[in-house]
Design goal:
Helices cover 26% and strands 22% of the residues.
């Protein structure tokens, strides 16, 4: 069966990455692409790397244009998806790459985003342990999917195995992330100009203000943490793509080194797209460029009594578009890895 697809926000980074991956999906017919200010222009003008989709023209983003497809992807700025989702009730599968349907807590939404609150959808991170089972079980047959925040899923994948196994203390987590500017979207911003970011590293959303914090806490609670507390600091670095997340947490009392490593090995040993590296090895963002993989390195620091987890992802693939398409495949009963790769691009 071939599924017809519409992608909104198709002129942006997330929308473009969704299209790049879908273009090689044998079960997908990309029928419609939409935008706001760029409507009426050729898609190729804004996504010149998508040569196989040069025949498509950007249309207006309206419920009427998005309706009538088997699948709709919403790759819109945070707070803008909800105005469309209520009008797409007849679409069999809708996948939101924005934040509008990620959070279960209205108070968290109000505190970190503001504006209209919308109900949470099935969370699109198949490898996460949620209430004792992998999230892919909840994705089977899902009709509404919330793709993750890239920073949030990276940190959650880093820490959930330790929380679920009870080998770390989730009340004193520290995460520092090196993040590429593509995660901020394609809109022109002075602080993201090449002349502003080249040759420097810049912290942002410091002091517990980053919008992905409640999303991480939500995942940790679902994994068994009663009161997760996280100090989360992202740092903008001069690479267009990528996240390198370094997270530490105290080791729980009485836990052995073998039990610690076994927690992550048990969680990800049979996963295709989340891989624990051999002891003593740690990932680079270059190793996941263009791939749907999260590579994890684990260290046990007995002197500080903490576990250190270093995770690398491509924020536009495993962090967003790849997670969305992986979740789509599961929801439709297709092979989970279809149109996705574990192989990065080098050098």
């Amino acid at each position: 069966m071939t599924y017809t697809v519409a992608v909104s926000g198709a002129s942006g980074y997330a929308g473009g990455e969704i299209l790049r991956l879908l273009a090689d999906h044998p079960d997908i017919d990309i029928r419609t692409v939409t935008a706001h200010s760029n409507a009426g222009q050729p898609l190729i003008q804004h996504q010149p790397h998508l040569r196989s989709l040069a025949h498509l023209e950007l249309q207006d983003t309206t419920p009427e244009i998005l309706a009538g497809h088997d699948i709709v992807f919403l790759a819109l700025p945070h707070g803008q998806s909800g105005q469309y989702t209520d009008a797409l009730g007849a679409v069999p599968l809708v996948i939101d790459a924005g934040a509008d349907h990620r959070l279960t807590s209205k108070s968290s939404w109000d505190a970190f985003y503001g504006g209209a609150f919308h109900d949470a959808w099935t969370y699109g991170v198949p490898e996460l342990l949620i209430d004792g089972v992998k999230q892919r079980e909840h994705l089977r047959g899902a009709t509404r999917i919330a793709a993750p925040g890239c920073n949030a899923s990276t940190v959650s994948l880093s820490l959930v195995p330790g929380v679920a196994a009870g080998v770390i203390d989730p009340t004193d987590i520290v995460s520092v992330l090196a993040v590429g500017p593509s995660g901020a979207g394609k809109s022109l911003k002075t602080n993201l100009l090449g002349s502003e970011i080249l040759g420097t590293a810049n912290p942002y959303a410091v002091g517990g203000t980053h919008r992905h914090i409640p999303e991480i806490q939500q995942a940790l609670i679902a994994a068994g943490a009663a009161d997760p507390r996280i100090s989360f600091t992202p740092v903008l670095v001069p690479m267009s793509r990528g996240i390198l997340a370094t997270s530490t947490a105290p080791i729980a009392d009485g836990v052995t080194d073998a039990q610690i490593r076994d927690a992550w090995q048990s969680a990800y040993g049979d996963e295709t797209f989340v891989q624990l590296l051999p002891e003593g090895q740690f990932p680079r963002t270059a190793d996941v460029l263009g791939a749907n993989t999260a590579l994890i390195g684990l260290a046990i620091d007995r002197a500080a009594n903490r576990v250190t987890v270093v995770t690398a992802v491509d924020n536009l693939v495993k962090g967003t578009a790849g997670a969305a398409i992986q979740s789509m495949n599961i929801a439709l009963g297709l092979p989970e890895a279809r149109a996705l790769t574990v192989n990065g691009v080098a050098p």
